[in-house]
Specification:
Length: about 140
């Protein structure tokens, strides 16, 4: 499934005929635990299970660190694109996020429009950001 890694957990949510699948992994080479700098990459696959095309217009992320501090990120499209996704097709991309704690969570929503221009939101499932420096197990 689009470069998803079999031995990492994947999380899915389906909203109004659009399936969002997420998977995150820790980037040890870009992290510096001694300075409380932890970095993750994540993959997202957005599949259109509807019978008409949809377009992703904007994103809204809620990023929560291991202390419960929340950051909200809003912006147009994803990685500089506002893709139109045909019925039965999917759009995949990769991005990343830093935290000052060795664990956290991400979740959010995509603002979409259907083929008539009607706006609707699609849930991005909650997924964990876990590193080997976190002693507990979130999942």
């Amino acid at each position: 499934m689009d470069d998803f890694v079999d031995d990492l957990p994947a999380f899915e949510a389906v909203t109004d005929g659009v399936r969002v699948t997420t998977q995150a992994y820790f980037l040890a080479g870009q992290s510096n635990p001694e300075d409380d700098e932890y970095v993750w990459a994540y993959r997202i696959r957005i599949a259109n299970e509807r019978t008409e095309p949809v377009q992703l217009m904007a994103r809204h992320w809620i990023i929560t660190d291991g202390h419960g501090a929340r950051e909200e990120v809003r912006g147009p499209g994803v990685v500089g694109e506002q893709p139109v996704i045909a019925p039965g097709d999917a759009h995949s991309y990769m991005s990343g996020t830093p935290l000052s704690t060795p664990t956290g969570f991400m979740q959010g929503a995509y603002s979409m429009v259907d083929h008539t221009g009607r706006p609707f939101d699609v849930d991005i499932p909650v997924f964990s950001l876990d590193s080997p420096y976190f002693a507990g197990s979130v999942n």
